[in-house]
Amino acid sequence: MLEDHKVTTLESGVRVASETLPSVRSVAVGLWVRVGSRDEEYGEAGISHFLEHMLFKGTGGLNAEQIAQVFDAFGADVNAATSKEATVLHAHFLDEHLDEAFRVMSDMFLRSTYADLESERDVVLEEIAMYEDEPQDKVHDILSAAVFGEHPLGRPVIGRGDVIASLTSGDVSSYHGRRYDPDAIVVSAAGNVEHAQIEELARRWMQPGTGGSEPNGHRPGAPGDVVPRVAFHSKETEQYHICLGGPGIARNDERRFALAILDAILGGSSSSRLFQEIREKRGLAYAVYSWSSQYTDTGQVGVYVGTREDNVAKALEVIGTELERICSDPVGEDELSRAREHVKGRLALSMESTASRMNRLGRSLLMDTPLLTLDETIERLDAVDADQLLELARELYPATQMSAAAIGRDEARFREALDPVGVAA
Question: How far is CA 45 from CA 40, 119, 300, 381, in A?
Answer without folding.
Answer: 6, 19, 20, 38
